[in-house]
Amino acid sequence: MVLADFGASVIRIDKAGTAQLDSLGNGKRSIAINLKSTKGVDIFKRLCNQCDVVIDPYRKGVMEKLKLGPSDLMATNKKLIYARITGFGQDGPYAKMAGHDINYVGLSGLLSLFGRYKEKPTPPVNFAADFGGGGLMCAFGIVMALYERNTSQKGQIIDTSMVEGAAYLGSWFYKSLKLPWLWGQPRGKNILDTGAHFYDTYETKDGQYMAVGALESQFYAVLLEKLELSEDDLPHFADFEKGREKLTEIFQTKTQKEWCEIFDGSDACVTPVLTFDNVASHVHNRSQNSFAMGKDDLLIPNPAPRLSRTPGISCSIQSPNIHVGEHSVQILSEFKYSQKEIKNFIENGVVEQAMKNSKL
Q: How far is it, in rounded angstroms, from Cα 28 to Cα 334?
């Protein structure tokens, strides 16, 4: 998605006869190929000979069994970037194991940090490994490899492990562990993991929430001022539990909107916890045009970061999600296959051309 939003032409190779599961398919094109057939493998290789990057999302050894591994494809395309993304990486005793985000974050060490005091670790949905340490780290590796290729004129293999990617994304946690004022307490008792009253969320009168992050003394002073309290009423680094109890009581006296009217524009580091229902209509996000409505009538974040000359443009705005095999004929034609060859591929089940659903 990131590569497509920032201008890359992305072709998704789908298995013929499968259902659409990619909710980030906007802007990509799909060709459905039977890779168990010799002709299907030949088509894949022909595409790869004329592309810059191949992304391999399978477990170790799958592409090699299809004779589509790095040695097969890079032998004829020396400049190919072969990006592999797996849960546990290409080597080690876990390399061929199945897993999901919760497993990868668990093995990275980061999951042990997430959760309330005296509660079990809480996985951050499938955000940290799948999309942070996995997809985004892989995209970063692709961009770096493409940049290096300008000098060497050679491709290379990218081994993206979601375990390692999540851990690397969390480098600051590892490098800050010896700061006793920051860490050193059980999970949920440290400053940044909801242990402190000035870094937590609080429910409001209308059942919404406010996020409080008044870490530094100058920001904490503004928080107290806005709450009409003094340091004696609510000490900064004293009894966190009593501080939390007091803030819990205070924030339940007003609605989220009323608290926003008090804190907006100040340095108290207090903001509303928005939901997918109201995030786009918030005054700041609306002024920044941070969100848009996609072709599938779903709210989407606009691409980030913003580039001054070549900004990303969300493919979700421009095009609807794709069907498996929707662009098979179009892609084969672009890669110089004749109409006779394409007809033969479809008739023999080598390639599948999907028809769009009628809107009548």
A: 15
Angstrom distances, CA of residue 71 to CA of 74, 92, 125, 268: 5, 20, 36, 56
| d(C-alpha 153, C-alpha 1), whole Å | 26
- Record the pTM: 0.92
Catalytic residue among 101, 130, 193, 200: 130
Q: With 0-12 CB in 10 A as exposed, 13-18 as middle and 19+ as buried, what is 65?
A: exposed
| Residue among 72, 100, 267, 323 flagged as catalytic | 100
pLDDT tens readout for residues 190-245: 999 999 999 999 999 999 999 999 999 999 999 999 999 999 999 999 899 999 99
Residue in the structure block whose two tokens are 């920001």: 219
100 catalytic? Reply is: yes
The SS3 call for residue 124 is coil
CA within 13 Å, CB half, 315: 20
